[in-house]
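Materials and Methods. Structural model of Tim17/Tim22/Tim23/Pmp24 family-domain-containing protein. The 207-residue sequence of Tim17/Tim22/Tim23/Pmp24 family-domain-containing protein from Lipomyces kononenkoae was retrieved and submitted for structure prediction as follows.
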Amino acid sequence: MDSIKDSIQQVILDPKYHDIFGILKGLRNGAIYGSKVRFAHALVMTFLFRNGSVKDKIQLVIKATREHARNLATFVFIYKSTLFVLKTTNGKEQDIDTFIAGLLGGYFVFGRGGKSSVNQQIVLYVFSRVVLGLSKLTVKKKVIPSLHNDVGSKVWPAFAALCWGLVMYMFRTDPDVLQPSMKTSMDYIYLDSNRWDSLRTLLWHNE
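The predicted structure was written out as tokens:
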């Protein structure tokens, strides 16, 4: 038994197989991370804002969690597999390979995978991080002069102000263009807080 364990240990630690096992572990980590992140989010949002029985809500939470986990795991698999193929083909790793692998994974998993609420939230989350990263990059590459050593201290205030200014303007003029879950949250915070007909509906419940 010990000899079998030693043999397996030698295989999984062999540099020749590192990329292959890296793909498998990426698949595993994507599924676990997706489950952890989505379960907590779906549980709170579903029980706070969705109508229906407890059974229906639990099914929605499980469905969203499964989709998030599957999509992240699939993306990691496509991404790391593509990197492996490109590295094997070119004989070395190149920075552009990550962009190509990301394009393929993004297209097949989150693009052609359907415009579900889970996919939209993941892509929009990534998009917001990309925009913020690009903003910081303009300062880092000296496209925009920085007055501070900390890049974020210059970019973040403008980024935050622009995001909130735009979303509040859209909520006022064209709320239907916002993501449904965001619109629901904003309705609750900004519109429902304008309506009450008694002390009860002012302090404890919406009208």
